[in-house]
Amino acid sequence: MNIKKLLMWSVPRAEKDIGEYSKRERNYFITGMLGQNIIYGLVGSYLSVFYTDVIHVHTIALIFITVITRVWDAINDILMGTIVDRTHSRWGKCRPYLKYAPIAMGILTILLFMPIANFPTALKIIYVVISWLIWETLYTLCDIPLWGMTSLITPEEEKRAKLISAARIVGSFSAVVVLAFEPIVNVFAQLEVGWFTHSGKPGFTGFYSAQQGYLFAIVIIVIVSTFLFKLVFPNVRERVTQAAEKKDTGFKENIKIMAANKPFLRVLASLVLGAAKGMVLSAGLYFCKWVLSDGGDFFIWLLILGGAFMGGTLISMSTCTAIAKKFGKKRVLIWSCYLTVIPYIAAFLFFFINGYAVVWPAAIFMAFAGFFTGFSNVYPTTMIADTIDYMEHKTGKRLDGVFFSGLNFSAKLSAAILMGINFLVLSIVNYTPKIENLSKMIESGQTINFTQDYPDITLALLILITLIPALSCMLQALPLHRYTLTENVLEKIIDDLNVRREEAKERDK
Length: 509
Hints:
Blueprint: H1 3-8, H2 23-54, H3 59-85, H4 97-112, H5 121-148, H6 157-172, H7 174-189, H8 210-230, H9 232-235, H10 251-260, H11 262-273, H12 279-291, H13 299-327, H14 329-354, H15 360-395, H16 400-428, H17 431-443, H18 450-453, H19 455-465, H20 467-477, H21 487-508
Helix pairs in contact: 2-4, 2-6, 2-7, 2-8, 2-12, 3-5, 3-16, 4-5, 4-8, 5-16, 6-13, 6-15, 7-8, 7-13, 11-15, 11-16, 11-20, 12-13, 12-19, 13-14, 13-15, 14-15, 14-19, 14-20, 15-16, 15-21, 16-19
């Protein structure tokens, strides 16, 4: 097998019919989902830290950059969804992109974390804008087809729900890599290879470079993650097709179809309004690093608080299919959104009243917050898959790519909201110049008491990981109260669609 075939994953199995949907196929799909989620998790969690604390891009500039990338995303996501739905190949409409796009996305992920701290400010900002825009485009080209496959692998709603639940659970294990990323960075940062100058605290070799640590860690993790992601193409198949041949729809028509899908719009609005609940993870890195660790190694605190949150999340995600079967996705999702508010407010009050010397009670609160959050990690995705069936039943058009572009857009808009709120709050407390000065103090061997010396940043970070997520959880529930696509309604729709598909097969014979 030559290099081109190896890179394009043109293995013999990719051309074979692998029969009916099976556990083996499910396992390959969720393994690929893990690889994709590791890359997205690292970018979502550490890119902002890399920009502000490693290459020192000012938070005001980052707000501007975030606005630019989101304007592009608003066009890019629906455009890519339309392209996917207009794709007709021997592999289907989503699967071809899973052959070609993951390697390109892996390369661009590495380029996001390039060591450009010494670039002039203007050149640094230009590099960040261009690399981020290209990465977002390639991520869209991977993410829409990947999630689109969940509604094409099998027409059975229960199997599809279990697949999405399993994908979300396994994808959440990417958090293990996110939690371990900081110590991995530290190891590579302390290896003197002659490529970088000493730029930080002393390491075990007397050398330390955060830029080197980030670059080496990202390269290794991205290579492994891309390999996992590439396993989807040769081992997963599309089985669901439209009940009847329809003319491909264009960009404008797809927007109209999306606008007419009221259940979809409610799910999308819920996802966007609930975006800031993810602040507990993104701003949590800053909180653990500065408030709990005074700028030192913060892995243990990240493990305690982040591990508690993710542990609670995994418990609810592993049971959400059974719980939805008994109580219904809509009801469970609404109640879980409201109940998440309680542990966040409890965590805020605990730290605000008692200080930051004792952490374990907050870990308990975070475990409960993670548990209630787990339901909102799974149900919206299955509900979007349901709305695709709903619109096929209503219009005869099955636009998996377009509607999952909405999921992709909401994820990226959510990430933008997170970064935007984060950068805005940090700019209010003048974070960047203070942290640059603080980093120099630490490098020179001075000890600091962060909570005492910087009470404004401390309070800002506490609000970011507690009160803002609490508010976002409440907002997330609001659009769902009038969501009408319940389990009973959906069951009738799927039965009718199956009849139509069988009739179409008979006509084609």
